[in-house]
Amino acid sequence: MQLDLKGAAGFFSVSQKTISLWIKTKNLPSYQVNGQYWFNRAELLEWATEQKIALSDQALEVEEGRTPVGLEEALRLGGIFHQIGGTDKASVLSAVVDVMNLPPALDRITFCQLLLVRESLGSTAIGDGIAIPHARHPIVLKTLHPTVTLCFLEHAIDFGADDGRPVDILFTLVSPTVRAHQHMLAELAHALKDSGFRSVLTRKASAGEILEEAKRVRERISANATH
Question: Which of 51, 98, 123, 161 is the most exposed place for a label (fewest CB within 10 A)?
Answer without folding.
Answer: 98
